[in-house]
Amino acid sequence: MNFIEESIFRILFIINHKNKIKFTHMINNVTLIGSGNLATQIGIAFKQSKITINQVYSKDVKNAKKLSKKLKCKFTNKIKEIEIKELGIICIKDDYISKIADKIPNKPIVHTSGSTNINTLNKFKKHGVIYPIQTLNKNKKANFTKIPICVEANTKLFEKELNVLCKKISNNVINVKSNKRLNIHIAAVMCNNFTNQIINRAEHILKKQNLSFEILLPIIDETFKKIQNPKTRLQKTGPAIRKDYKIIKKHIEELEGLDKKIYNIISKQIMSDE
């Protein structure tokens, strides 16, 4: 330690001792437990922000090796070889979080699930959640600066550490408790997965009539433009908002299977919202 470094250390020690300030530990090294879409994209984002990726774990050694090559780090497919230096990030299916957590050493750990309670990681002295609100694909680069990240931790100090870490990759980091995060995930599923499924069903209906899905693209485009504008987000058109029961009945009679029920339920909900 040179003279300048020693002087700075002494000043910080005096300030800390006098004011009892707790300096937030900077997390600079993470281990990824998982190699899927989220693990890939969050790993790339952290690496680009100068966070060291220590290791990648995946039960599939090929996937572990492939991601480790991208992130220039170690890899393993053996749980007993998982090495966590500063933070472990569990990026696997919700059903397996508690199972793998039982086999990991007591090191600082977080999971990335929207719906899994923080208490799932109670065995760890320092535990928490970092949940990015975004649909991700390992083959499509994600712009994490625009992705909201929900943070939760079992202590205020660890919460600060996770905030500092996540703010290195995102401009929108919010502290959210498990129950609210669960509701955020439900809302995200509805606006992302359900919307996607309804659009797929619309394409299916057109295909049965030998019609191109392309004819719907302008109306889909206009719909999503309106959604992004708070002034037009709640504007609705169509048979349900007009309470055009004859047209609704005609549409339902034309549909088959679950499409009948979906059309009917959503139409009823649109009418009840008014």
Write up this protein:
This protein has 274 residues and is an alpha/beta fold. The protein folds into 2 domains: 24-176, NAD(P)-binding Rossmann-like Domain (Rossmann fold), CATH 3.40.50.720; 182-273, ProC-like, C-terminal domain (N-(1-d-carboxylethyl)-l-norvaline Dehydrogenase, domain 2, Orthogonal Bundle), CATH 1.10.1040. The protein contains 10 helices and 8 strands. The protein has helices at 3-19, 37-48, 61-71, 94-101, 156-166, 178-208, 217-227, 239-242, 245-254, 257-273, and strands at 29-33, 52-57, 74-76, 87-90, 109-111, 127-132, 149-153, 173-175. Strands 3-2-1-4-5-6-7-8 form an 8-stranded mixed β-sheet, with helices on one face. Strand 2 (52-57), helix 3 and strand 3 form a beta-alpha-beta unit. The N and C termini lie far apart (70 Å). The mean pLDDT is 92.
